[in-house]
Amino acid sequence: MGSLLLLLLLLLLSPSYPRGGSARRRRSARTQGPGGPFPAPPETSAPFWVRISPELKAVPPGGSVWLNCSSSCPLPEGSSLRTELRRGDTLSGPGWVSYQLLDVRAWSSDVHCFVTCAGETRGATARITAYKQPRSVILEPPVLMGSEYTLRCHVTHVFPVGFLVVILRRGGRVIYSESLERFTGRDLANVTLTYALRARPSDFGQPVTCYARLNLDGLVVLSSSAPMTLPVLAWSPASKALASTSIAALVGILLVVGALCLRKYLSMKSRA
């Protein structure tokens, strides 16, 4: 009996004897693996946004504008601006950069702002427009030259001229329109439109109005003149001279006819 107890004690003390704690550790080791209880998630860059403000800005021709480019990146690696416009000063702070653009003369320009964060580059886009509504639209009083009215409309200090359409309306109908898309100047301009309208009896007393319309890629800017009435008697000097001559000739014919009739009457009375 003593020998049996001694043999059991030696077996328990032997390092090759499996123990419950060691088995649990081996099972735990098989479960955890080298990196801990769960595999480590892969490292990814957090998403970030880029904004530019204002996104749409209209300035007078030759004017300037500030654009602010901001992002949610905590540690931006760099920022840049891409534009064909002339650049001025640059200001910056935590998470933002402001750019100045000078002497804006193109009707429409796209400006792109880019920010790089954790190796990824994102951007935003703004649009800068430059236009000038006409200072005035003036329609001169119509002048009758022979059988035609001369209509003359002046559009002053307008930009861009290449997007301008000048329209003449009589009553509620368009009688003439002209597009100036062939003009590509980059400065303020004055435009004069002259149109000859054949006079008809139904035109007398009708109002005529001149309109200046800027068609700016969906934005329509409309200006108009004060209406002018087509006069019944709008005689030019040549028309007056012709009318006077015609009246004098008619009076002469009537006098001759009257004299002949009187002479014939007196002759017939003397015979009786």
UniProtKB/TrEMBL annotation:
Which family, according to the similarity comment? Belongs to the immunoglobulin superfamily. ICAM family.
Subcellular compartments: Cell membrane
Recorded source organism is Tursiops truncatus (Atlantic bottle-nosed dolphin)
Q: Topology relative to the membrane, per the entry?
A: Single-pass type I membrane protein
Protein's name in the database: Intercellular adhesion molecule 4
Entry keyword annotation includes Lipoprotein: no
Molecular function in Gene Ontology: integrin binding
- Which Gene Ontology cellular component terms are annotated? plasma membrane
Is the keyword Membrane in the record?
yes
Q: Where is this region: Disordered?
A: 19-45
Which SUPFAM superfamilies does the entry link to?
Answer: Immunoglobulin
Gene3D superfamilies referenced in this protein's UniProt entry, alphabetically: Immunoglobulins
Q: What GO biological process terms does the UniProt entry carry, in alphabetical order?
A: cell-cell adhesion
Q: Which InterPro entries match?
A: ICAM_N (IPR013768), ICAM_VCAM (IPR047012), ICAM_VCAM_N (IPR003987), Ig-like_dom_sf (IPR036179), Ig-like_fold (IPR013783)
Mind telling me which residue stretches traverse the membrane in this protein? 241-262
Signal sequence extent? 1-23
Enumerate the spans annotated as Intercellular adhesion molecule N-terminal domain: 48-135
Protein keywords: Cell adhesion, Cell membrane, Disulfide bond, Glycoprotein, Immunoglobulin domain, Membrane, Repeat, Signal, Transmembrane, Transmembrane helix
Q: Coiled-coil ranges per the record? A: none
